[in-house]
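Q&A log
Question type: sequence-to-structure
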Amino acid sequence: MSKTFRSAQPHIASSERPVRPNTSAFTHNLLRDQFTISAWFSLGALAQLALFTLPIKPYYAALPAIGYILWAFLDNALMLSGLKKNIYLANVLPGRTSALLPSEDGIFKKSGASGERVTVFHLGVKFSHPLGLLAPGVSEMGTYARSMYDELAARAEEFNFLGMDSYTQASSTPTNSQSLTLLYFKSKADVHRYAESPLHRKAWEWYNGFARSHGHIGVMHELYEVPAGNWESVYVNMEPNGLGVTRHRVYDGQGEGRWVSPLVDASRGVLSTTRGRLE
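Response status: OK
Response body:
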């Protein structure tokens, strides 16, 4: 029997348009992943040596490193003492939340796992080359990827695109790790429709041509269409991630549309347990 949670409210405010992918943090982490820890220390040492070659007193050359260490120590001390807000908690949703997909009228109903199927598309890419991001083809690959992600966000309702999140593999190589993007759709048919779109076909044709003579850019994908009642989620003191970053198009009684988050309170009631979220 379906249960309706009319009092459930998303933990994140709705918006007039779908949330576009945030690529700045992803790019930052991708750059950091290009070098081992020892390589980063070596680069810092070279920078320090370069300062010592300048016509200044030696202790001036040490000031940038000393200043940064003191600033980092003081910044962390202020957060630990409570005198400064913990910046690492800035986007954390306190307590227990769960992703519950809303109906088109914006009401959160629960039948199985929200009464809605969800389709997850895993897209992985790895640059197996000594030059990393500077390797041949990487720039073009990145341009195509950003263009397709932007197009999906701009045409989210057309392709039933719900959102995406990105991760870096931590169990393989210490550098040039595989990046994995999770894309969420309403159905596998929506994924296939986008695969036939002009931009994706152009990107795929470029990659196939490039891969014939270059084997250092690897791609993979996995597609899962999960029926209603066969998935559930819980997030405890976490930033929105995975299905929690998606947005869903709903309409009010006047036909006005908005994009809402699926994250609702799961601290009590049926959503507080795995069995309750599945039944």
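Response note: The longest strand covers residues 118-127.
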